[in-house]
User: Which sequence fits this backbone?
C-alpha cells in the first residue's frame, strides 16, 4: 500500500468520525472521478461556551438549551453544560477542579429531548463560565441562550448572549475604556491544553499601546475575564478589540457595562467583509451609534442604508462613512428608525475593503435608559435558532437586503408544555419586518424560534428580548446566523480494490 492510498483512507476515516459515515472510491480508468455530489448530513458533535454571567450579587441568570428536531440524526446523543475552572477572588488562583472530580464535572444543565427547551436558573455574582458539548441527535443546531437580569448598579438591566463556539480570531467594535464604562473580555478555553492569546486595542488614532495584552495564558478548561482598563491607561470612548489566539482556541465575548445607561454583551462581529448587515434595531430606539473598523491597509468608504418596512432609506446626514485603515470610526445616527423596524446595511461605494462593525442601541430617556449591541452578522443560511422566548417581550426582525424572500418560522413547544407551530412570511427585498410571532398552543414556559429561509434572496435575522423594570426598558438583542447544523459530505461508491494498490 503506497503512502497516497494510506493518506486517502485516513482522511475518509476522519470524515466518518465527524459526519457519521464516509466511503471511498478510486477514479475510473478514464480519470473521471466517480464520486457523487456532496450530501448535507447532520453534524454529530457541537461545542458551545458560555461566559461567566455577572459579578453582581443581585444578578439572576437563566440558561436555556434547545436543539431543533433534525432528520437523519438517529436516536442516541446528549447535550450538557459543565462549569469551567474560574479564578478565586480570595486567592487570585484557579480553583482546584480536576478532570477526575465527579462533583466538579457534574452537569449544570442536561438537555432532555430535541424540540423542547431546557432551562436552568442561577443567582449571584459567582456563577462560573460553562463549557457545553452536544452529541448525536442533540448536536445539529444546538443553541444555548444566557440571559441575566441585574436590578441595580453598573450594567443594570437585561443582558443576553448566545453561547458560542471556540475559534482563533474575534473582532469587537464598540468596546470602551471611558470613565463610565467597565468592559471585560471573557476568554474561555474548552480544551485540555493551555491557550495563548493576544488582545489588541484600536482607537480613533490607531493601535492603542497595552501593558499586558500579549501572551495571555488561558489554562485548560478554564475562563479568564480581562478588564480592558487594566490593559491601557488611555480613556477611549469607542474601541475595537481584536482577540488573536496564538496557540489553541478560545471562546470570546465582551461584557460592556455602563454606570448610567445599563449594559449588555457585545458578541463578535462576523469576519471582515466588504458588505455588512446589522439586523434588528428596535423601532423605539432613541439613539444608535455605528462603530466600524478596517483591519487591513486600505481605507474603506461605505454607503449607509437603513432597511425599513417600506424600503431602503438613507439616514439624513450620514449617507456614507469613511473608515481609515487601522482606526476605529464611530458615528451617532440618533433615533434613526423613527418608530419603525430597521436594519443597517453597509456596502462599498467603490472598491470593496473588508471591515467589521457593530451598533450600540439605546432605548428610553434620561435616567431610564438601557443599552444593547448588534454586531454585523452572517445570513441565516439554512437555519438559525433563538432560545428563551416568552409569550410577551420577544420580537423577531427579518431583513432581506437584496431580494424578496420567503421565510418559515417555527415556535417550538414550551419548556413546560405546549405544541409547536409554524408560519411562513414574505419579506420584500430591501425591507425589514418585525413579524408577528407564531405562539405555541397551550404554551407553558419559554420556547425557541427557528428560522428557515424557503426561497428568494439571503435573509438576516435578530431577536430582541424586552423586560421593563421600574420604568427602565431593559432589553437585549441576539443576531441569528446560520447554525451550521449540517456538513457537506461527498457521496462515493464503495470500491475495496483501492486497498490492493
Assistant:
Amino acid at each position: 500500500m503506497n503512502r497516497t492510498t494510506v493518506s486517502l483512507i485516513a482522511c475518509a476515516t476522519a470524515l466518518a468520525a465527524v459526519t457519521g459515515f464516509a466511503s471511498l472510491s478510486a477514479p475510473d480508468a478514464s480519470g473521471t472521478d466517480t464520486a457523487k455530489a456532496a450530501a448535507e448530513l447532520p453534524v454529530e458533535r457541537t461545542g458551545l461556551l458560555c461566559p461567566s454571567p455577572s459579578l453582581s450579587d443581585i444578578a439572576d441568570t437563566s440558561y436555556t438549551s434547545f436543539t431543533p428536531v433534525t432528520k437523519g440524526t438517529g436516536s442516541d446523543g446528549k447535550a450538557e453544560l459543565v462549569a469551567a475552572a474560574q479564578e478565586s477572588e480570595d486567592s487570585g488562583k484557579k480553583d482546584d477542579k480536576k478532570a477526575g472530580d465527579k462533583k466538579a464535572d457534574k452537569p449544570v444543565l442536561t438537555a432532555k429531548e430535541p424540540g423542547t427547551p431546557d432551562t436552568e436558573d442561577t443567582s449571584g455574582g459567582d456563577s462560573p463560565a460553562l463549557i457545553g458539548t452536544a452529541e448525536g441527535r442533540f448536536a445539529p443546531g444546538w443553541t444555548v441562550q444566557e440571559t441575566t437580569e441585574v436590578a441595580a448598579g453598573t450594567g443594570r438591566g437585561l443582558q443576553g448572549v448566545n453561547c458560542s463556539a471556540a475559534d482563533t480570531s474575534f473582532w469587537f467594535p464598540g468596546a470602551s475604556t471611558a470613565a463610565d464604562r467597565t468592559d471585560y473580555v471573557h476568554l474561555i478555553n474548552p480544551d485540555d491544553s493551555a491557550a495563548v492569546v493576544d488582545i489588541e486595542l484600536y482607537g480613533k488614532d490607531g493601535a492603542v499601546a497595552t501593558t499586558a495584552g500579549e501572551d495571555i495564558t488561558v489554562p485548560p478548561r478554564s475562563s479568564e475575564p480581562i478588564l480592558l482598563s487594566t490593559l491601557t491607561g488611555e480613556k477611549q470612548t469607542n474601541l475595537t478589540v481584536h482577540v488573536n489566539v496564538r496557540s489553541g482556541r478560545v471562546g470570546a465575548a465582551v461584557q460592556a457595562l455602563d454606570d448610567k445607561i445599563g449594559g449588555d454583551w457585545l458578541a463578535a462581529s462576523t469576519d471582515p467583509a466588504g458588505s455588512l448587515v446589522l439586523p434588528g434595531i428596535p423601532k423605539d430606539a432613541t439613539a444608535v451609534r455605528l462603530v466600524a473598523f478596517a483591519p487591513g491597509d486600505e481605507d474603506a468608504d461605505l454607503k449607509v442604508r437603513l432597511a425599513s418596512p417600506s424600503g431602503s432609506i438613507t439616514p439624513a446626514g450620514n449617507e456614507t462613512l469613511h473608515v481609515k485603515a487601522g482606526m476605529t470610526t464611530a458615528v451617532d445616527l440618533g433615533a434613526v428608525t423613527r418608530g419603525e423596524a430597521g436594519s443597517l446595511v453597509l456596502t462599498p461605494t467603490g472598491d470593496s475593503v473588508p471591515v467589521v462593525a457593530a451598533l450600540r442601541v439605546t432605548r428610553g430617556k434620561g435616567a431610564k435608559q438601557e443599552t444593547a449591541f448588534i454586531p454585523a452578522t452572517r445570513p441565516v443560511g439554512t437555519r438559525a435558532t433563538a432560545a428563551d422566548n416568552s409569550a410577551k417581550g420577544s420580537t423577531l426582525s427579518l431583513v432581506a437586503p437584496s431580494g424578496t424572500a420567503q421565510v418559515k418560522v417555527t415556535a417550538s413547544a414550551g419548556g413546560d408544555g405546549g405544541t409547536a407551530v409554524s408560519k411562513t412570511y414574505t419579506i420584500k427585498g430591501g425591507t425589514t419586518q418585525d413579524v408577528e410571532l407564531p405562539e405555541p398552543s397551550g404554551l407553558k414556559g419559554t420556547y425557541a424560534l427557528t428560522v428557515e429561509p424557503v426561497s428568494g434572496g439571503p435573509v438576516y435575522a435578530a431577536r430582541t428580548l424586552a423586560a421593563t423594570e421600574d420604568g427602565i426598558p431593559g432589553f437585549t438583542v441576539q443576531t441569528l446566523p446560520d447554525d451550521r447544523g449540517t456538513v457537506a459530505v461527498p457521496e462515493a461508491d464503495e470500491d475495496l480494490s483501492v486497498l490492493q494498490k
